[in-house]
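[agent] plan:
  1. take the single chain provided in the ticket
  2. run structure prediction with default settings
  3. attach structure tokens to the ticket
  4. add a short note for the reviewer (M.T.)
[agent] executing step 1
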Amino acid sequence: MLVSTPIGNLGDISERARAVLAAADMVLCEDTRRTRRLCAALGMHARLVSLHEHNEAARIPAILNRLREGRLLALVSDAGTPLISDPGYRLVRAALAEGLPVHAVPGPNAAVTALVLSGLPPAPFLFLGFPPAQAGQRVRHFRSIRKAEEAGLSASLIWHEAPHRLAETLADLAATFGERNAAVARELTKRFEEVRREKLPALAAYYAAHPARGEITIVVGPAPEARPSEPKSVEEALKEALQTHSMRDAVALVAATTGRPRSQVYARALAMKEEAGKDAALPESAESAESPEPVPKNTPDP
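[agent] step 2 finished; step 3 output follows
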């Protein structure tokens, strides 16, 4: 059973989550210390077993054996919904592969909470976990998302980030995405909850001067829609097409792209060719027109 737990405010735990945790034969948790504090606050005593990225693969066989025996096992993360930037995915895949039942108790989620508070378009959105910690890898990661946007991606973008990297991450986001609307959500559902909604450069400057603390989620608005370009005239389209195509192919291409009758495009192409021929002959004509007047015959001196 995948059980969502509060991301800050203990009052957000559901009655169903309480019941499952109280009845579970074992609670698999990312950090036993944090989950023990949660259980103590809820007034329950559960058997806690750690399950994190370093031991998940090794623990899977024993956990599957318990599930085959019909034991009720609950999986929680340190906060929020399990598997979302947290361990458990490999365990769930292994259980499903063996046909063992997997259920979820829905509840708090920091990414979705930040999104709905950001004032940015809620759908579609793309949750990307934590950006790479190394600056070079982080910039490449952001650039890959920007390239996807240039190819057609349009979604609000969501990342989690550690407080000590927030300012430099925002600076990298601003350098990559420019004057994009964004929000930084901090300490959600807690006493000092804060959501700042500004453009990326302003957020980068603010957090460079005011170091952040606590759990942080960044939401970046989708790329603005590209303004439709003005349609090219037949002449412009022909000039461009004739640079790489024969007249016949250029006429066919321009007729297809502009919706003009092919005969009309062909007539215009011929006229352009004729005009180009006149222009090519212009220097010689101009030279004749500008030649000096004939020298008059010598006349006898008076």
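[agent] step 4 note for reviewer: The two ends are 126 Å apart (CA to CA).
[agent] ticket updated
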